[in-house]
Write a structure and sequence with these properties.
Helix content: 40-55%
Shape: globular
Bound molecules: flavin-adenine dinucleotide
Radius of gyration: 21 Å
Structural class: alpha+beta
Strand content: 15-25%
Distance between the termini: 42 Å
Number of strands: 9
Strand order of the largest sheet: 2-3-7-6
């Protein structure tokens, strides 16, 4: 029932606006409040905080339906921010922020990457200086998904500017509305995901209450990220499998219709073998993903397994989508064809939330 509700909502409220969203480089603000009204946001956050009271299975459905429809709407980042708050904020803060996020009135973003520090997160330069009951923040962030609409930012800062590397990193929640010294850059021009607002954020003597530190103490930011990034990574794995399956489905249709040398493309052995390989790999991905989701729901998916899921499933997606594009010939390179957009949109899956190379390092630490 939930899937059918989400499917119909996306078809009616999101799909017709995609071309315009791509042009303006962001979804409409009302897209968030409409999704909130329907109960699509924070589906796996307890109902007492305004969430849907479901599990990651519900989130999976939202991510899959968005990916299959080719819609750029990062509700998984919204959920991810909510889970940082759920795990590390005070009871009052949870009751203040989470219901507004569930209604789509507050859009969440996670701001870790900086121009000179992406994979090397220990190199971040944004500093939060303690001043009485406040932190005063200076610095800048880049590549922030949901950056344009963000009303609440989970921000990685150095609370101890002298501490080397990963030590001294903390997470601070910033409510951005009418906040002096806070500025959003224009949405960045990307290869794909054009309707996604990916922005730079600037902080100039921005003052937030000291209680906005995700606690209980300073310097815990990196371990908090390690724990909570599994959520984002698994969600990207979900999008990867949904995209791969969709690519196989639309390509199978295409090669039955398109003809060359007097017969449909599917009559060439290469076409059949390629699609047989893609279908098999997508199925292996699905089985692995379902196993990861089951473990995640019962709290048994560690950060290594989440890294394995994100790296392997997005690599697999890349191979499948690329092969499927090839089977479309020149039309596969035309943006009006869904396979072309899938190819461009999915490329970032191997890069964000930790590049696949960094994830292999993380997996290797466990050996
Ligand atoms: C569309 C988009 C949305 C994003 N959204 C967000 C967001 O919401 N919030 C946020 O904080 N960030 C976001 N990011 C940033 C993203 O997480 C980073 O781009 C990513 O972590 C890589 O960092 P980098 O771009 O600085 O690349 P670099 O760190 O410069 O890496 C360049 C290359 O070197 C490789 N490399 C680096 N270190 C090693 C190593 N030790 N071993 C082997 N290889 C290595 C990398 O794997 C990569 O191939 C987003 C990025 C994009 C493109």
């Amino acid at each position: 029932m939930f899937r059918s509700t989400v499917h119909k909502f996306i078809e009616k409220e999101f799909a017709p606006h995609q071309a315009r969203w791509r042009q303006q480089h962001r979804p409409d603000a009302e897209a968030w409040t409409k999704a909130g009204e329907l109960g699509i946001l924070l589906s796996d956050v307890p109902a007492e905080y305004g969430g849907g009271g479901g599990t990651f299975a519900h989130e999976t459905i939202v991510v899959e339906e968005l990916a299959q429809a080719g819609i750029h709407f990062a509700s998984f980042i919204q959920s991810s921010v909510a889970h940082y708050i759920l795990a590390y904020a005070s009871e009052d803060q949870k009751r203040n922020w989470l219901p507004r996020m569930a209604r789509g009135e507050l859009v969440g973003a996670i701001a870790m990457s900086e121009p000179a520090a992406g994979s090397d997160i220990g190199g971040i330069k944004t500093v939060a200086r303690r001043d009485g009951d406040s932190y005063v923040i200076n610095g800048s962030k880049t590549f922030v998904t949901n950056g344009w609409h963000a009303g609440i930012v989970c921000l990685a800062v150095k609370t101890d500017a002298k501490a080397a590397g990963l030590k001294g990193i903390s997470l601070v929640i910033v409510e951005t509305k009418d906040l002096p010294g806070y500025r959003v850059g224009r949405p960045l021009e990307k290869v794909g995901m054009h309707a996604q607002d990916t922005c730079e954020l600037f902080f100039d003597e921005v003052r937030v209450p000291a209680s906005n530190l995700l606690g209980p103490a300073e310097g815990l930011g990196f371990s908090q990220m390690m724990e909570k990034m599994s959520y984002e990574r698994l969600a990207i794995g979900v999008a990867a499998v949904a995209t791969a399956e969709q690519a196989v489905a639309i390509t199978t249709e295409y090669v039955k219709e398109r003809r060359a040398f007097g017969k449909p493309l599917i009559d060439f052995q290469n076409t059949r073998f390629k699609l047989a390989e893609c279908k098999t790999e997508a199925h292996i991905g699905r089985v692995f993903l379902d196993n990861c989701i089951e473990r995640f729901i019962v709290g048994q998916l560690d950060s290594v397994a989440a890294a394995q899921a994100k790296y392997w499933l997005t690599d697999c997606e890349g191979r499948i989508v690329d092969d499927c594009l090839q089977l479309h010939g020149g039309y596969g390179y035309m943006t009006e064809y869904p396979i072309a957009r899938m190819w461009a949109d999915s490329r970032v899956h191997r890069i964000y939330a930790g590049t696949n190379e960094i994830l292999k390092e993380l997996i290797a630490w466990s050996l």
